[in-house]
Design a protein that fits this description.
Layout lengths: L5 H13 L2 H8 L3 H15 L4 E2 L8 E2 L1 H27 L5 E7 L8 H11 L3 E7 L2 H9 L5 E5 L7 E9 L2 E4 L13 H4 L3 E5 L5 H11 L5 E6 L2 H9 L5 E3 L14 E4 L8 E8 L6 H23 L5
C-alpha cells in the first residue's frame, strides 16, 4: 500500500462531512475536479473504494473501507490536537485555539463579554465560533468539529458529556401596550387568543413548545415561525405578537428593547434545559480545558445571582 497523501485525506474527510464533492470543493476553495482526482488517487493507493457513487443529487455514502478511513482521520486529528495541547502546556498557554458552538441567542447574551474578558487574560488563545441550532451543534460536537458547545433542550446522544446544566424557566415576552402587559404571571390559556412567534422544526425547543400547547388544548395562532431566537424575540418585543422565551443568563433582570418578561406559571410549561457539553471520552487540549473552567465559573456565578435575586415581574 502506498503512503496516503494528507491532502487527499483532508479532501476525503470534507466530502464525507458534507455529503458531496461539489459541497466539499466549495468549502475547500478548490475545483470539484481536483477533489475528485484526489479521491481517485486515494482509492488507488488504498486499493479499495471509499464512496458509494450514486446517481442523482443524493448525498454520497461511505463504504466499509470509507468508514474505517474516516475513523482513522478522526483519530489522527484528535492525536494532533493532543500533541498541540501538550506543547501549549509547555509554553504556558501562550498559544492555542478553541472551536466553540452556541445558539444564536448567545451572540448577544453572555458570550461577547466573556470572550472579551477571556482574551485579555489569555491573549494567545484564538477562537472559531459556529452559531447554529442545537441539533446541528451536537452533530458537529460528535464529529469533533467543535471542542464544546451550548445547547438548549434535551440532548439525546449518549456520546455527549454534559459539564454544566441548568433549567431555565419560561417567560412570556409581552410587548409594551399589550392587553397582558403588567400581569404578575400568565398561564397558557391567557395567551391562547393572541398571535405567537414560535421556533420552527429545525430546533429542539419546538418539540417542547408543541407538547406544551397540545397538553393545554391550544391551537396557536402563529404570527411568525423561524429558526432564529433573536428574530422570534424581537418581533414580539416590537409589538407583533407574544412569544415564549427564557431571560438573559448574565442579567436575568434585563428588559427586552420593548415590553417585558412575564413568568409563565402553568403546570404544562416545562423549563428549558441549557447544557454545556463536550464529546465523551475525548482528551481536550489545555486551552479548551482552561476556557471551559473559566466559563463554568461565570455560569455558576450567574446562576447563584439569579437564585439570590429572582426577577420580580
Amino acid at each position: 500500500m502506498k503512503l496516503v497523501s494528507t491532502t487527499a485525506l483532508r479532501y476525503f474527510a470534507e466530502v464525507a462531512r458534507t455529503g458531496s464533492i461539489r459541497a466539499a470543493s466549495e468549502n475547500l476553495f478548490v475545483a470539484a475536479s481536483a477533489v475528485g482526482r484526489q479521491l481517485v488517487m486515494l482509492e488507488d493507493s488504498l486499493g479499495a473504494p471509499l464512496l458509494e457513487r450514486r446517481q442523482g443529487r443524493g448525498k454520497v455514502r461511505l463504504t466499509a473501507a470509507g468508514e474505517l478511513l474516516m475513523r482513522y482521520y478522526k483519530n489522527i486529528s484528535n492525536e494532533t490536537r493532543r500533541v498541540h495541547a501538550e506543547l501549549e502546556a509547555l509554553q504556558g498557554l501562550r498559544r492555542g485555539h478553541v472551536h466553540f458552538g452556541m445558539p444564536e441567542s448567545f451572540t448577544r447574551d453572555l458570550m461577547p463579554g466573556f470572550f472579551s474578558r477571556f482574551s485579555k487574560d489569555y491573549p494567545g488563545i484564538s477562537f472559531s465560533v459556529h452559531v447554529a441550532g442545537s441539533p446541528r451543534l451536537t452533530q458537529m460536537l460528535l464529529e469533533d468539529e467543535l471542542d464544546a458547545c451550548f445547547t438548549f433542550g434535551d440532548v439525546p446522544q449518549t456520546d455527549v458529556r454534559t459539564v454544566y446544566s441548568r433549567l431555565m424557566p419560561l417567560f412570556v415576552l409581552v410587548p409594551s401596550g399589550h392587553p397582558l402587559e403588567g400581569r404578575k404571571s400568565l398561564r397558557l390559556s391567557d395567551c391562547a387568543e393572541y398571535g405567537l412567534s414560535l421556533l420552527d422544526s429545525s430546533l429542539w425547543a419546538k418539540l417542547q413548545t408543541d407538547e406544551m400547547l397540545s397538553k393545554a388544548n391550544i391551537r396557536p395562532r402563529v404570527a411568525l415561525e423561524t429558526n432564529s431566537y433573536e428574530l422570534m424575540r424581537n418581533v414580539a418585543a416590537e409589538g407583533m405578537c407574544l412569544t415564549f422565551t427564557t431571560t438573559p443568563i448574565e442579567d436575568p433582570q434585563a428588559r427586552p428593547r420593548a415590553g417585558s418578561y412575564v413568568p409563565l406559571k402553568d403546570p404544562r410549561a416545562r423549563p428549558q434545559r441549557l447544557a454545556l457539553s463536550v464529546h465523551q471520552g475525548r482528551n481536550l487540549p489545555l486551552p479548551v480545558e482552561t476556557f471551559l473552567a473559566e466559563l463554568l465559573l461565570v455560569l455558576e456565578d450567574a446562576e447563584a445571582r439569579a437564585h439570590a435575586a429572582p426577577a420580580a415581574r
